[in-house]
TrEMBL record:
SUPFAM superfamilies: DNase I-like
UniProt family annotation: Belongs to the DNA repair enzymes AP/ExoA family.
Enzyme Commission number, as recorded: 3.1.11.2
Name by which UniProt lists this protein: Exodeoxyribonuclease III
Superkingdom to which the source organism belongs: Bacteria
GO biological process: DNA repair
Cofactor info, note text: Probably binds two magnesium or manganese ions per subunit.
Site for Interaction with DNA substrate, residues: 248
Length: 269
């Protein structure tokens, strides 16, 4: 089973790229973030032509998440337990069971800057995520994938000094990630890419991608059953190249699961 996560930075702007990538990479499940469209505006018909069912969660031209699956899409949940808002809850989390694996696609708030109300919202949102996942842990494999807007360690940014007094690297944010891992979730770290670190995001400005001055903020956290099944993980840097890319690259994880996957050609139960 191949699962992936990708902040597409507008599914409308990136649709030709997304469709081409689905055909080339052939993931079984894709977690998308920053779709920037309402759920009823998501291009579900176009991805259905490639064999994917869609669970989209979006309310406006901001935020938005989705799950695309060709191995089943059951028990769909949109939003978190007791989810905080800014001021109202935003479309930042969608979960479903796909091929016997419980998966969540999440787009964690940016936080803007320490001390800003959006920073407090970010920390509260991460706690709601922790509580939601804690209630879902069980016999089936579980993983949460997405744009966390937090670099877990200083090695996950191109220059730690450049981020002093900034979000994404502060102790409270990293402690929030630590509380997620304390649930028994492991960090599935992709193979290094161009350089020694598997960065997943590069700012559009100043040639950051070509200089490989990036961050690892697109994360895959899985429980013991999920991480034990991991056979490979990589950042698809090719998807970040060319004209009009997202500023994020997909993270792809290959799993070897004991249970057989549902036949994607079979009619839904």
């Amino acid at each position: 089973m191949r699962v992936a996560t990708w902040n597409v930075n507008s599914v409308g702007a990136r649709l030709p790229r997304l469709l081409g990538w689905l055909q080339e990479a052939a993931p079984d499940v894709v977690c998308l973030q920053e779709t920037k469209c309402a759920a009823d505006a998501f291009p579900a018909e176009q991805v259905a032509e490639l064999g994917y069912a869609t669970a989209a969660h979006g309310t406006s031209r901001w935020n938005g998440v989705a799950l695309l699956s060709r191995v089943g899409l059951e028990d769909v949940r949109r939003g978190l337990d007791d989810e905080p808002g800014f001021p109202d809850p935003e479309a930042r989390a969608v979960g479903a069971t796909c091929g016997g694996v419980r998966l969540w696609s999440v787009y964690v708030p940016n936080g803007r800057e320490p001390g800003h109300p959006h920073y407090a919202y970010k920390l509260a949102w991460l706690e709601a995520l922790r509580a939601t996942l804690a209630a879902e842990l069980g016999p089936r494999p579980l993983a949460v994938l997405g744009d966390f807007n937090v670099a877990p360690t200083d090695a996950d940014v191109w220059d730690a000094a450049a981020f002093a007094q900034s979000t994404h690297v502060t102790p409270p944010e990293r402690e929030a990630l630590g509380r997620l891992r304390a649930l028994g979730l492991g960090d599935v770290v992709p193979r290094p890419g161009k350089g020694p670190h598997p960065f997943t995001y590069w700012d559009y400005r100043a040639g950051m991608f070509h200089k490989d001055l990036g961050m690892r903020i697109d994360l895959v956290y899985g429980d013991g059953a999920f991480t034990a099944a991991v056979r490979d993980a990589y950042v698809d840097r090719e998807a970040r190249k060319g004209k009009g890319p997202s500023d994020h690259a997909p993270v792809v994880v290959d799993l070897a699961l004991d249970a057989p996957l549902p036949d994607p050609a079979a009619p839904p139960a």
